């Protein structure tokens, strides 16, 4: 009995310390974020997307990195959850969209006509300015809206789909391409497939991981790809780490792959070097 009591007390102390540590870290991040944005410490990295028939680079996803002058590179998982709760993620997203629009103009100058996708956080949905804001960027940098792909996470599709779908439809009317990110991570992926006005289905990396090793899993992934295709949507698989996964996806008719097997997210200069080579693998 004594033992149990002791353990509980210790656990409680550890828990308490962890919370305090976390609070301190969060307070520190919060005090630095505005200045960091002004000082250009947030940087756009690009992860190539590869066409599964040719292994040619056919696009990229823009992912944010925080290059801290003292602490080095910070990954989104370390600061985006906080920015989602304090709203600063909207500023990060807007910054990333602008960087991406600017970069699309540069790519077109270099003679590449490939799309780049950006992430749209849940805080932007329901914001009526979203369409105006994105259309403004397209005009400002004279880019083709279909090259700016918008990734919207599947978990959002369970909330108020009515207003979500109407915003998505408006964005599509302007010419943006819409990707459903993290497909397979939510509760009713099939319903979403039926109704959502999206152009591209992006299969979640955990879904791919978990299922690809089992026979039943393979059947589910292969048929999700087949169904998306028959419904007129393109398919991307993210988190592709092995040759076997790439081959399975290719045989299942998946169009595009993204993952460490091809390349990690990299700075723009490195991305341009890869583009010159053209083909990965
Ligand atoms: P996501 O949108 O699902 O992005 C894919 C994540 O998977 C990226 O993590 C990428 O580096 C990682 N990844 C890609 N290929 C592989 C692979 O083969 N294996 C493994 N293990 N991981 C792989 P990252 O860059 O750390 O970003 C994490 C999440 O943060 C993103 O997940 C996205 O939800 C969010 N995020 C990143 N940048 C932005 C942004 O500018 N705005 C918003 N709203 N969210 C962002
Ligand atoms: Ca994404
Ligand atoms: Ca994803």
Describe this structure in words.
- α4 (129-140) links the parallel β4 and β5.
- The radius of gyration is 21 Å and the shape is globular.
- With 281 residues, it is of the alpha/beta class.
- It contains 10 helices and 9 strands.
- Bound molecules: ligand C2E and calcium ion (CA) (2 copies).
What descriptive keywords fit this protein?
disordered N terminus, eight-stranded mixed β-barrel, single chain, 281 residues, alpha/beta, binds calcium ion, binds ligand C2E
Please summarize what this structure is:
With 281 residues, the chain is α/β, with parallel strands linked by helices. 52% of the residues lie in helices and 19% in strands.
Radius of gyration: 21 Å
- Helix share, percent: 40-55%
Q: Strand fraction band?
A: 15-25%
Backbone structural class:
alpha/beta
* Backbone shape: globular
The end-to-end distance, rounded to whole angstroms, is: 61 Å
Largest sheet: 8 strands, mixed, barrel
Layout of helices and strands:
Blueprint: H1 2-38, E1 42-51, E2 57-68, E3 72-74, H2 76-86, H3 89-109, E4 116-119, H4 129-140, E5 148-153, H5 161-174, E6 177-183, H6 189-195, E7 200-203, H7 205-212, H8 215-230, E8 234-238, H9 243-251, E9 256-258, H10 268-277
